[in-house]
């Protein structure tokens, strides 16, 4: 698609419809969810799949802000990599705003049977009601992780840091969507022994989300610095022996 932009152009409207088969859209039927009750949707835009569900310049070298209005069934909750709701909308309408410029691969959406559990003034967990309390305990030291990272690398600049626990069919460990990290339920061990994954995804708030690789050829820099920051966070919490 090519659009001619003149000096007088203030706004460009693009009307489009996304295919249900877009590679970024992951549709789960009820049998693939946590309690097997209701269907679920989540997106995975990294590395170059954002273009399959939104018109965008799909490269990590271009950043954008966004606003979205999402309509879902009233028994489901919608979440995005933005400022998120704390309760279901009785009408099924959700409005999201991401005021900070992000690369397209960090735009994310999830829709499902989701409950909210606050953990601190700026951290919360979203999960199916059957595991929400366990998840809130498991990730209860997220605030301390943020404080450790800030001590090392400067202020956390994304407002809230929320965690969404995906259904068991989520095929990844985690995804560092700003304001809404996606994680697998397999790290809910009951003893916080696997929460270094949270430290890793949180570390992306500095390395990756705040400062991003210019091209996918440079992605190793993103993950390399993030792994280093993750280990420094865990060292701050548990000592060098960790």
In short:
By secondary structure, this protein is α+β, with helices and mostly antiparallel strands. It is built from four helices and eleven strands, in the order ββββββββααβββαα.
Overview of the structural elements:
The protein is an alpha+beta fold and 242 residues long. It has a 5-stranded mixed β-sheet, covered by helices on one side. Helix 2 crosses helix 3 and helix 2 crosses helix 4. The longest helix is centred in the C-terminal third of the chain and has 20 residues. The relative contact order is 0.13.
What's the SSE blueprint?
Layout: E1 25-28, E2 40-43, E3 63-71, E4 77-80, E5 93-103, E6 109-112, E7 115-120, E8 123-127, H1 132-138, H2 142-153, E9 161-165, E10 174-175, E11 180-183, H3 196-203, H4 219-238
Observed structural traits:
242 residues, alpha+beta, globular
- N-to-C order of helices and strands: EEEEEEEEHHEEEHH
Question: Would you state the CATH class?
Answer: Alpha Beta
Strand content: 15-25%
The total number of structural domains is 1
Identify the overall geometry.
globular
- Helix percentage: 10-25%
Instruction: Tell me the radius of gyration.
Output: 18 Å
Given as residue ranges, the uncertain stretches (5+ residues, pLDDT < 50) are: none
Tally the beta strands: 11
**What average pLDDT do the residues reach?**
95
Structural class computed from helices and strand pairing: alpha+beta
Determine the number of helices (DSSP H or I, runs of at least 4 residues): 4
> Biggest sheet, strands in spatial order?
7-8-9-11-10
Q: Give the terminus-to-terminus CA distance.
A: 51 Å
Report the sheet with the most strands, covering strand number, pairing sense and barrel closure.
5 strands, mixed
> The CATH topology, please?
Zincin-like
CATH architecture: 2-Layer Sandwich
């Amino acid at each position: 698609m090519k659009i001619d932009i003149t000096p007088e152009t203030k706004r460009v409207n693009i009307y489009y419809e996304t295919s249900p088969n877009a590679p970024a859209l992951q549709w789960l039927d009820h049998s693939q969810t946590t309690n097997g009750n209701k269907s679920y949707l989540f997106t995975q835009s990294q590395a170059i799949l954002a273009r399959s569900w939104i018109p965008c310049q799909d490269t990590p070298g271009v950043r954008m802000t966004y606003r979205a209005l999402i309509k879902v069934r009233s028994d489901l909750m919608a979440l995005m990599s933005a400022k998120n709701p704390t309760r279901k909308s009785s009408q099924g309408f959700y409005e999201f705003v991401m005021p900070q410029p992000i690369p397209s691969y960090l735009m994310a959406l999830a829709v499902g049977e989701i409950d909210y559990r606050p953990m601190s003034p700026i951290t919360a967990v979203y999960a199916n009601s059957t595991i929400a309390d366990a998840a809130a305990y498991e990730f209860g030291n997220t605030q301390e992780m943020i404080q450790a990272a800030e001590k090392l690398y400067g202020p956390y600049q994304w407002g809230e840091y929320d965690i969404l626990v995906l259904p068991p069919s989520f095929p990844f460990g985690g995804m560092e969507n700003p304001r809404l990290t996606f994680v697998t339920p397999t790290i809910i061990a009951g003893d916080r022994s696997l929460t270094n994954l949270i430290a890793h995804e949180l570390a992306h708030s500095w390395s990756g989300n705040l400062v991003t690789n210019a091209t996918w050829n440079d992605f190793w820099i993103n993950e390399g610095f993030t792994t280093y920051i993750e280990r420094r966070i865990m060292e701050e919490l548990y000592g060098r022996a960790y």
